């Protein structure tokens, strides 16, 4: 059952071929048996999952519920879940049990009737590209457990790739959905900024953070994204605009779809083998009727430096609340207030988080604000303008998701800058706020390669349809890692 | 030392809590005095993952204030985060406004007394800006040993911070400005004005310079002075202190000072060098706030009549003196009370004004009560004034009726009539009983009668008094006068 699509699982449940309890138990058993090799879950909420499964079975027995009712799902541990530890991958929040549900948690579980299997491992406060900054230890890539799964949503992708969940929620501030999806043969979509509520999603960089989903196919992703999306009055940056039907939108031909390949995304730094898989995929799309052209996003090289000003600045502010006073880690035997603050934060945050807080504090400081933060905001506008111009002549922008396949655990932990360059192709979409998706387009030495599609604002349906059409013609996404079949 | 050589330069920052039911960025209640932390929801606590949503009523109140001080209302204003660590600041930053406040470039005219009989001088004080922000919680040190208690009920209460230009030149001007501002925000219904509970708080920026000097001296900021009297004392102290320092060869240090109401002194709290770098930046959780011309005009249409306009109207509509109009429009509730007495009694507006600003306010002052909980309501007072107007009672008897109403001897809108009836205070307007009383008085006082008739005109008052006494004060004084004149005539 764990290799079936979400559509098939839903049909099976409604046809009473199996119950949600049976399905949930199977996943729980797989987690118990296989997750010790991966470390993809921080918390497994078995008891709660079975209760939700029973509730779903009751709804299904009455003929109620929707396409997702009774289907299990893993939540990234960045979403607040009432009564369940919500750690954000940090020692700082190891003792934090959220007293409320994030909006998307309510939408997916209370409303859509999905069953929460547990909370997935992640880079601490979503800061990382390898899942090695988690206080709960690194996650291993199911395709090669000596390699990283990517980050920050490393637990979410490892769990789905290994069949420990049919799909998982994830978040993307600079590529944290797409890069790990690429490294684990999954489809991951970061929707338009404002499409999915951020309420209850622990903030890293508020103007960039966006929740999305990782799944084994564009179709699976469409089902879950449909249920997550929509306006939320509790999030002032949420956009009040109809979501449309992402699932029924999948059947469309891509004949005449104009796809632009930005030359900057195929320049130096891209591994040849990855380039070649991506170009193979372009040929498939072309054969399906897509019209391919080369375009330019001239300000692309500015994405990484811009991001590493804006994101740490916002992070330094968002993480100021973790002070040991009301919740979270509190240093023992504080001598005075300042000692309480300093030691609680020094003990509670790991080195990467501390590094970004320091960078962010610096760029917002008096006398540096204009030179860094304000300038970065201006560059951000230029990057947005690049895309605006591009979408005048093309419908989608296509490129590699990452420069290379998954790297070895520990390979980049001592070199923050080379780690930051992992997000070189993914950051621009966050800076511009546009939707972007990564899907698998083949393998290099048994390791998955990701293809990135970027769309105009609110073009999630077009992105998902293009990915789905490609997946109709290929079967990369159907492959499972050895040992986790 | 010659104080006359010096002039003070003062600017005030007033924090005014807005009278919204819920907080500026969440639905938690704002009522004062609840048990600690019972009004702290997830947003107030700054829990992980929560987001702010602007309270539209708070925005409207800020716009109302801006319109009331003839200020510009920003078409687009931006919330910014102001960072510092303190246990009663849950997020580690305060959401405030920095570069683009909602209100800017306004002014308030204050009146400076030139003695009782002279026209006051009008002075215009510039209002640089007023911005919206959230209040912090409270740190409680009393009643705890070795720990500090944190109460976050107040955290997130909407404030406007009103910043004046450095146009104020004395403690008296500062108080006049503050009182005017206080009156205005209470009139607007955007603040309860309770200084004791911290709804209206003032920080004073003070510097001194020699007269004729155009540059400003170094200023100090005295924090949280929470009554008009303390503001006056703190500023006076600070002016004297600064002059002393400079005249004895010292220099003023830019610093924050704290006023001690027990000693009347200010003391240094922190210098500029220890000041926080607040690292302001636009809050990415909140979109810029757009106030269109339509929004602004819609809000303007809901504005109540403001004190100045009301004062003008009272002088023209009711023919009141400027002084009476000023007193009666001091508070919106008082003005409403007065207008209802005029309307319900149908009596002369000036007569009503005398009763409201004289006897009623005097009595309330003694009782320590507000107009809002006066034991004599407007309909009660109107009922009594109507009886004066229709000559049922005299003004003198009315004093007794008023005292009886104040003492609670009768309730309800017709309390005055009930008292007049119960005590038999109806004025005697028939000639018969008055003539009988006059005859009695004349018979009892032959000597005075003879003297009067002999040319001692002054004795007329004596006879009036005797007749009034004989009628227990109930005789109509005009009638007594008229009949006595006839009877006493030789």
From TrEMBL, chain A:
<dbReference type="InterPro" id="IPR036928">
    <property type="entry name" value="AS_sf"/>
</dbReference>
<comment type="subunit">
    <text>Heterotrimer of A, B and C subunits.</text>
</comment>
<dbReference type="InterPro" id="IPR023631">
    <property type="entry name" value="Amidase_dom"/>
</dbReference>
<dbReference type="GO" id="GO:0016740">
    <property type="term" value="F:transferase activity"/>
</dbReference>
<dbReference type="GO" id="GO:0006412">
    <property type="term" value="P:translation"/>
</dbReference>
<protein>
    <recommendedName>
        <fullName>Glutamyl-tRNA(Gln) amidotransferase subunit A</fullName>
        <ecNumber>6.3.5.7</ecNumber>
    </recommendedName>
</protein>
<comment type="function">
    <text>Allows the formation of correctly charged Gln-tRNA(Gln) through the transamidation of misacylated Glu-tRNA(Gln) in organisms which lack glutaminyl-tRNA synthetase. The reaction takes place in the presence of glutamine and ATP through an activated gamma-phospho-Glu-tRNA(Gln).</text>
</comment>
<keyword id="KW-0547">Nucleotide-binding</keyword>
<feature type="active site" description="Charge relay system">
    <location>
        <position position="76"/>
    </location>
</feature>
<keyword id="KW-0808">Transferase</keyword>
<feature type="active site" description="Acyl-ester intermediate">
    <location>
        <position position="176"/>
    </location>
</feature>
<keyword id="KW-0436">Ligase</keyword>
<feature type="active site" description="Charge relay system">
    <location>
        <position position="152"/>
    </location>
</feature>
<dbReference type="GO" id="GO:0005524">
    <property type="term" value="F:ATP binding"/>
</dbReference>
<dbReference type="InterPro" id="IPR000120">
    <property type="entry name" value="Amidase"/>
</dbReference>
<feature type="domain" description="Amidase">
    <location>
        <begin position="22"/>
        <end position="464"/>
    </location>
</feature>
<dbReference type="Pfam" id="PF01425">
    <property type="entry name" value="Amidase"/>
</dbReference>
<dbReference type="GO" id="GO:0030956">
    <property type="term" value="C:glutamyl-tRNA(Gln) amidotransferase complex"/>
</dbReference>
<comment type="similarity">
    <text>Belongs to the amidase family. GatA subfamily.</text>
</comment>
<dbReference type="InterPro" id="IPR004412">
    <property type="entry name" value="GatA"/>
</dbReference>
<keyword id="KW-0648">Protein biosynthesis</keyword>
<dbReference type="GO" id="GO:0050567">
    <property type="term" value="F:glutaminyl-tRNA synthase (glutamine-hydrolyzing) activity"/>
</dbReference>
Automatic annotation (TrEMBL), chain B:
<dbReference type="InterPro" id="IPR018027">
    <property type="entry name" value="Asn/Gln_amidotransferase"/>
</dbReference>
<dbReference type="GO" id="GO:0050567">
    <property type="term" value="F:glutaminyl-tRNA synthase (glutamine-hydrolyzing) activity"/>
</dbReference>
<dbReference type="Pfam" id="PF02934">
    <property type="entry name" value="GatB_N"/>
</dbReference>
<keyword id="KW-0067">ATP-binding</keyword>
<dbReference type="InterPro" id="IPR017959">
    <property type="entry name" value="Asn/Gln-tRNA_amidoTrfase_suB/E"/>
</dbReference>
<dbReference type="GO" id="GO:0005524">
    <property type="term" value="F:ATP binding"/>
</dbReference>
<comment type="subunit">
    <text>Heterotrimer of A, B and C subunits.</text>
</comment>
<dbReference type="InterPro" id="IPR014746">
    <property type="entry name" value="Gln_synth/guanido_kin_cat_dom"/>
</dbReference>
<dbReference type="GO" id="GO:0070681">
    <property type="term" value="P:glutaminyl-tRNAGln biosynthesis via transamidation"/>
</dbReference>
<dbReference type="InterPro" id="IPR023168">
    <property type="entry name" value="GatB_Yqey_C_2"/>
</dbReference>
<dbReference type="InterPro" id="IPR003789">
    <property type="entry name" value="Asn/Gln_tRNA_amidoTrase-B-like"/>
</dbReference>
<comment type="similarity">
    <text>Belongs to the GatB/GatE family. GatB subfamily.</text>
</comment>
<keyword id="KW-0808">Transferase</keyword>
<keyword id="KW-0547">Nucleotide-binding</keyword>
<dbReference type="InterPro" id="IPR006075">
    <property type="entry name" value="Asn/Gln-tRNA_Trfase_suB/E_cat"/>
</dbReference>
<keyword id="KW-0648">Protein biosynthesis</keyword>
<feature type="domain" description="Asn/Gln amidotransferase">
    <location>
        <begin position="336"/>
        <end position="488"/>
    </location>
</feature>
<dbReference type="Pfam" id="PF02637">
    <property type="entry name" value="GatB_Yqey"/>
</dbReference>
<dbReference type="InterPro" id="IPR042114">
    <property type="entry name" value="GatB_C_1"/>
</dbReference>
<dbReference type="GO" id="GO:0016740">
    <property type="term" value="F:transferase activity"/>
</dbReference>
<dbReference type="InterPro" id="IPR004413">
    <property type="entry name" value="GatB"/>
</dbReference>
<protein>
    <recommendedName>
        <fullName>Aspartyl/glutamyl-tRNA(Asn/Gln) amidotransferase subunit B</fullName>
        <ecNumber>6.3.5.-</ecNumber>
    </recommendedName>
</protein>
């Amino acid at each position: 059952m764990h290799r079936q699509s979400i559509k098939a699982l839903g049909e099976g449940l409604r046809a009473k071929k199996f119950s949600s309890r049976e399905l949930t138990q199977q996943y729980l058993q797989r987690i118990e048996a296989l997750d010790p090799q991966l470390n993809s879950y921080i918390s497994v909420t078995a008891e709660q999952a079975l209760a939700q499964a029973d509730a779903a079975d009751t709804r299904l027995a009455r003929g109620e519920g929707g396409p997702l009712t009774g289907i299990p799902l893993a939540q990234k541990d960045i979403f607040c879940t009432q009564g369940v530890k919500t750690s954000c991958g940090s020692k700082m929040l190891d003792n934090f049990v959220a007293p409320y549900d994030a909006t998307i948690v309510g939408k997916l579980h209370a409303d859509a009737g999905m069953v929460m299997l547990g909370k997935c491992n992640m880079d601490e406060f979503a800061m990382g590209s390898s899942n090695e900054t988690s206080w709960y230890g690194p996650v291993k890539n199911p395709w090669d457990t000596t390699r990283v799964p990517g980050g920050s949503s490393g637990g979410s992708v490892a769990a789905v790739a290994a069949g420990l969940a049919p799909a998982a929620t994830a978040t993307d501030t600079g590529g944290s959905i797409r890069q790990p999806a690429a490294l684990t043969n999954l489809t991951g979509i970061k929707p338009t900024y404002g499409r999915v509520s951020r309420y209850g999603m622990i903030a890293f960089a508020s103007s960039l953070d966006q929740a999305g989903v990782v799944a084994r196919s564009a179709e699976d992703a469409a089902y879950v994204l449909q249920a997550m999306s929509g306006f939320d009055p509790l999030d002032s940056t949420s956009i009040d605009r109809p979501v449309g039907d992402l699932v029924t939108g999948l059947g469309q031909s891509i004949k005449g779809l104009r796809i632009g390949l930005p030359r900057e995304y195929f320049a130096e730094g891209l591994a040849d083998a990855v380039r070649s898989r991506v170009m193979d995929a372009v040929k498939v799309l072309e054969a399906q009727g897509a019209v391919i052209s080369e375009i330019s996003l001239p300000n692309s090289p500015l994405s990484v430096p811009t991001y590493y000003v804006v994101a740490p600045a916002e992070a330094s502010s968002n993480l100021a609340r973790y002070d040991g006073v009301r919740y979270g880690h509190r240093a023992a035997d504080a001598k005075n207030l300042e000692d309480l603050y300093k030691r609680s934060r020094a003990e509670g945050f790991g080195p990467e988080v501390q590094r970004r807080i320091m960078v962010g504090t610096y760029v917002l400081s008096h006398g540096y604000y204009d030179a860094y933060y304000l300038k970065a905001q201006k560059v951000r506008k230029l990057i947005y303008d690049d895309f605006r111009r591009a979408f005048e002549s093309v419908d989608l922008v296509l490129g590699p998701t990452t420069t290379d396949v998954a790297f070895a655990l520990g390979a980049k932990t001592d070199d923050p800058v080379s780690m930051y360059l992992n997000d070189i192709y993914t950051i621009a979409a966050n800076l511009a706020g546009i939707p972007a998706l990564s899907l698998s387009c083949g393998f290099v030495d048994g390791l998955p390669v990701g293809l990135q599609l970027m769309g105009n604002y609110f073009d999630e349906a077009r992105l998902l349809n293009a990915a789905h059409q490609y997946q109709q013609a290929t079967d990369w996404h159907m492959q499972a890692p050895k040992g986790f079949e | 030392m010659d104080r006359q050589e010096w002039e003070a330069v003062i600017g005030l920052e007033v924090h005014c809590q807005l009278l919204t039911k819920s907080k500026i960025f969440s639905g938690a209640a704002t009522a004062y005095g609840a048990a600690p932390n019972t009004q702290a929801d997830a947003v107030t606590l700054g829990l992980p993952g929560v987001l702010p949503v602007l309270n539209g009523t708070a925005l409207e109140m800020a716009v109302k204030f801006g319109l009331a001080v003839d200020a510009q209302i920003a078409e687009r204003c931006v919330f910014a985060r102001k960072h510092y660590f303190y246990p009663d600041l849950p997020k580690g930053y305060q959401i405030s406004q920095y570069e683009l406040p909602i209100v800017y470039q306004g002014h308030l005219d204050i009146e400076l007394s030139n003695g009782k009989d002279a026209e006051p001088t009008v002075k215009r004080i510039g209002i640089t800006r007023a911005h919206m922000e959230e209040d912090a919680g409270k740190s409680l040190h009393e009643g705890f040993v070795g720990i500090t208690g944190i109460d976050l009920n107040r955290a997130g209460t909407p404030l406007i911070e009103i910043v004046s230009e450095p146009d104020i030149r004395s403690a008296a001007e500062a108080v006049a400005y503050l009182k005017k501002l206080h009156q205005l925000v209470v009139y607007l219904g955007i603040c309860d004005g309770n200084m004791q509970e911290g709804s209206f708080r003032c920080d004073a920026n003070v510097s001194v310079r020699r007269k004729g000097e155009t540059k400003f001296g170094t200023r100090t900021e005295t924090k949280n002075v929470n009554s008009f009297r303390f503001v006056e004392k703190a500023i006076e102290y600070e002016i004297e202190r600064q002059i002393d320092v400079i005249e004895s060869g010292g220099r003023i240090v830019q610093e924050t000072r704290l006023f001690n109401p027990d000693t009347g002194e200010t003391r240094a709290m922190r210098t500029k060098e220890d000041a926080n770098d607040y690292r302001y930046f636009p809050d990415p959780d909140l979109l810029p706030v757009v106030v269109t011309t339509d929004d602004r005009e819609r809000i303007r249409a809901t504005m109540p009549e403001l004190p100045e306009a009301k004062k003008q109207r009272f002088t023209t509509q009711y023919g009141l003196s400027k002084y009476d109009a000023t007193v009666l429009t001091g508070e919106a509730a008082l003005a409403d009370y007065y207008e209802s007495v005029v309307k319900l009694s149908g009596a002369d507006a000036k007569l009503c004004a005398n009763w409201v600003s004289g006897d009623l306010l005097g009595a309330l002052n003694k009782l320590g009560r507000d107009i809002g909980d006066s034991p004599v309501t407007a309909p009660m007072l109107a009922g009594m004034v109507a009886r004066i107007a229709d000559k049922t009672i005299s003004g003198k008897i009315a004093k007794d009726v008023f005292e009886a109403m104040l003492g609670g001897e009768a309730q309800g809108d017709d309390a005055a009539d009930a008292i007049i009836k119960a005590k038999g205070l109806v004025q005697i307007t028939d000639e018969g009983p008055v003539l009988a009383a006059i005859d009695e008085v004349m018979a009892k006082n032959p000597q005075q009668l003879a003297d009067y008739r002999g040319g001692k005109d002054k004795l007329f008052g004596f006879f009036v008094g005797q007749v009034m006494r004989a009628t227990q004060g109930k005789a109509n004084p005009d009638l007594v006068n008229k009949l006595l004149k006839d009877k006493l005539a030789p």
